Amino acid sequence: MKKKVVISGGTGFVGVYLTSLLVKKGYEVLVLSRTLRPNTAAVSYYLWDVSSGTIDEKAILEADYIVHLAGESIGDTRWTAARKKAILESRVQSTTLIGNVLKSNAKKVQAFISASGIGIYGALNGKGICTEETQVGHDFLGKVCEEWEKAADGIASLGIRTVKIRTGLVLGNKAGFLQKMIPIFKKGLGAPLGSGKQFMPWIHIHDLCAIYLEAIENDQMEGAYNATIEDSTTNSLFTKTLASVYNYSVWLPNIPAFVLELILGEMAVIVLTGRRISNHKLLHLGFRFHFKSLEAALQDCVKSKD
Length: 306
Prior knowledge:
Blueprint: E1 4-8, H1 13-24, E2 28-33, E3 43-49, E4 54-55, H2 57-62, E5 65-68, H3 81-104, E6 111-117, E7 129-130, H4 140-156, E8 162-167, E9 169-171, H5 177-186, E10 202-204, H6 205-217, E11 223-227, H7 235-245, H8 257-264, H9 269-272, E12 276-277, H10 280-285, H11 294-305
Parallel strand pairs: 1-2, 1-5, 2-3, 5-6, 6-8, 7-12, 8-11, 9-10
Antiparallel strand pairs: 3-4
Helix pairs in contact: 1-6, 3-4, 7-11
């Protein structure tokens, strides 16, 4: 009998790719969604609404594993007070909702795997390399990730193996931040942001989903893991590399930080700051990245897109 994996956020960028991978690996996928879609032989959809605290418990009760990806995007719109509240609550309340179903039904899944972010270390630039033991940041992103992971720890307290995947910038060919940049770079208008010295820890969607698969299948995997390539990529290097993929050299000056702050408000911290991130814990586990070269990763995304 096929093992069943529940995915929250299964209709999003990472969720769609992960669903496809799991189906290819012989799993049955149960997607928690705010709107029902037609079921297939391998993928079924179940309704939930985090804001109202409702969920079709059948999905959770049938699950062998749960992969929790759901959460409002941090980069879609300016961080108003209402938007920041939605970003935080969408993560914490959704995790708590799943946990409550597990607890009230004494349901023991084989693993609960939650998305998290490298934003947990804070957005400020730093000379040191962040490991999973690095202190949590005190800014908005740090607070969001900390509360998100605390909610996941509540599920771990039920005796369920819990894994937290702290993700960097995800490169893919269908969605994500890269697809917002491609139209600009295709026109030869790419430019570094701010100082250009801020680090941009990245990961290809292929490798990220392979990490989630590893978390499902490797029962030794538990706790927090940084899911990024450790290559010291800065914004300037990223910009030059993406421009080279389109066969030109960057010729425009850096976009001043104050311009981005005027446009994006507090959210400008996402593009103007960054930290170096260690992936040694994953490597020690035996995981091997397929895309370790930034140029190769970008070439793959652009080739697939074009």
